[in-house]
Design brief:
By secondary structure, the chain is an alpha/beta fold. The protein folds into three domains: 98 residues, Double Stranded RNA Binding Domain; 48 residues, no CATH class; 325 residues, pyruvate-formate lyase- activating enzyme (Alpha-Beta Horseshoe), CATH 3.80.30.20. It contains 18 helices and 18 strands. Strand 10, helix 9 and strand 11 form a beta-alpha-beta unit. About 3% of the residues have low confidence.
Length: 488
């Protein structure tokens, strides 16, 4: 498809909008008129009193145009011109393809943060009107935004100016899931380097803890992710957990999470090790309870193994368990997804995170050419709505959300929880509430200045071999934390 932008420079925004409807089609943006079988024309004509805004779309013989005028007296005139142009093109697409994404023209990662800021600037009623009329967001998604925004604000208010969270990366998995783009390594191939990885990871944890103590930073949450941390042996888990406990002051720590992740990695010995060292929250993530779908996406476990692992965690004493699910997985059906939701509700986890399938560039699904189009988006929309209705009815409410690019149906990822069991780290990292200091291969430290909100990043090397071979260089980078906190 060709987009011809005349009199405007909104190339990136309009290309991104078009991908909501044509996610896998090549889109070329030009600054002159070029007629083709599939093309769009957008035009802005500025005058003394305002701007005429025009969008035209032609897809295989079907045509639609939308015209508008925006007064120059409009607040944030330039930005509103851009939004109105996007809205006009959006309406052209909706008319021709008979499909209306519920998030309208909104493509940002953090819609709840935008909603919170808009409410502060405009008031609640005007914010709702802005999201509905200008951004074309459906009433259903505005309702979801309103609910999650309130919960996120409550969690964000817990953070102090010297707060931080600790992230520790264990980049190993039993197998690589077909939808995954994270930097993770098959345990079969990486097993020889794990002792060295644990040794150097503990060195980095200890180094970081010294900076934290010197700067008098306050630890709010700990999150050990990956990969799948429970691919490690019970002894290696104890080594890492023990190093964290001996290095940091955990008296202020509100939440200590470990991604147990894959049910096929969970044993009683590992769960006992987690409990022994004060882990308060774990994730056991089936993604689906359909064995056929599990096989398709490259997971070696079964639904039965998930239920067994969940019960084992309860028996060991874990009273805060999250389960991750994905709507829109290949070969999953609406009935199968609903059955998964119902079965999850029956075992009553404290948290349920419902992700929408994202077609990430580095995933196996994308590499093999899996291309879910509009019909898949319609199906995924039905799935996430069933999840929201059913979970809420069961007393498991949405408390945070975020979005990713190239998500089927332009949908969202939502964390649900029972009251009092909200995942704090999830909100802190997504909102960029405070600094996240990260250790391990592929980990990214994100430092937030509490005074002006500016963010600085320190990246660790991606791959475990590189992490080990260039460890000293990595430690030098981490010294940047000292400089960042020079104001303390």
């Amino acid at each position: 498809m060709i987009i011809c932008n005349l009199g405007n420079n909104f190339d990136y925004e309009l290309e991104k909008l078009s991908r909501l409807f044509l996610p896998f089609e090549r889109i070329d943006v030009k600054s002159s008129l070029t007629v083709d079988k599939r093309y769009a024309v957008t035009k802005t004509e500025y005058a003394d009193n305002g701007c005429n805004i025009y969008a035209f779309l032609s897809l295989d013989g079907k045509e639609k145009e939308c015209k508008s005028f925006l007064s120059k007296d409009t607040e944030n005139f330039k930005k509103r011109c851009e939004l109105l142009l996007a809205a006009n093109l959006f309406e052209c697409f909706v008319d021709i393809v008979s499909y209306k994404p519920e998030w309208g023209i909104l493509t940002g990662v953090r819609p709840a943060r935008l909603f919170i800021e808009t409410v502060k600037n405009m008031g609640y009623d005007n914010a709702v009107k802005y999201f509905s009329d200008v951004l074309k967001v459906s009433k259903n998604k505005i309702s979801l935004l309103s609910e999650t925004a309130k919960s996120e604000e409550d969690i964000i208010s817990l953070s102090k100016n010297n707060s931080f969270s600790l992230y520790v990366s264990i980049p190993f998995c039993p197998t690589r899931c077909s939808y995954c783009s994270f930097v993770s390594n098959s345990i079969d191939k990486a097993i020889k380097i794990i002792p060295s990885y644990i040794e150097y990871l503990c060195k980095e944890i200890e180094f970081v803890s010294k900076i934290v103590k010197e700067k008098k930073l306050r630890l709010e949450t700990v999150y050990i992710g990956g990969g799948t941390p429970t691919t490690l042996s019970p002894e290696d888990l104890e080594t890492v957990l023990g190093k964290i406990r001996s290095s940091f002051d955990l008296s202020t720590c509100r939440e200590f999470t470990v991604e147990a992740g894959r049910p096929d990695t969970i044993t009683k010995e590992k769960l006992v090790a987690l409990k022994k060292f004060g882990v308060s929250r774990i994730s056991i993530n089936p993604q689906t309870l359909n064995d056929n779908v599990l096989s398709v996406i490259g997971r070696r476990h079964t639904a039965k193994q998930f239920f067994e692992s969940f019960k084992l965690a309860r028996d060991v004493g874990f009273d805060n368990i999250n389960t991750d699910l994905i709507a829109g997985l290949p070969s999953d059906t609406y009935d199968s997804f609903c059955k998964t939701i119902d079965e999850i509700i029956n075992i009553s986890p404290e948290n349920v995170t419902v992700h929408s399938l994202s077609m990430k560039r580095a995933s196996t699904l994308t590499a093999v050419g899996f291309s879910p189009e509009i019909d898949a988006g319609v199906l995924s929309t039905k799935m996430v709505e069933y999840a929201r209705t059913s979970l809420t009815k069961a007393g498991i409410f949405p408390y945070y959300m975020y979005r990713q690019s190239k998500t089927v149906g332009n949908l969202e990822n939502v964390g649900y929880s029972k009251k009092g069991f909200e995942g704090l780290y999830n909100v802190f990292i997504m909102d960029e509430t405070h600094s996240i200091i990260a250790c391990g291969a592929s980990a990214a430290t994100k430092l937030r200045n509490p005074i002006d909100g500016k963010i600085e990043r320190i990246f660790n090397f991606k791959y475990p071999f590189e992490y080990l071979s260039r460890f000293d260089e990595q430690i030098e980078r981490k010294k940047g934390i000292y400089e960042f906190y020079s104001f303390l």
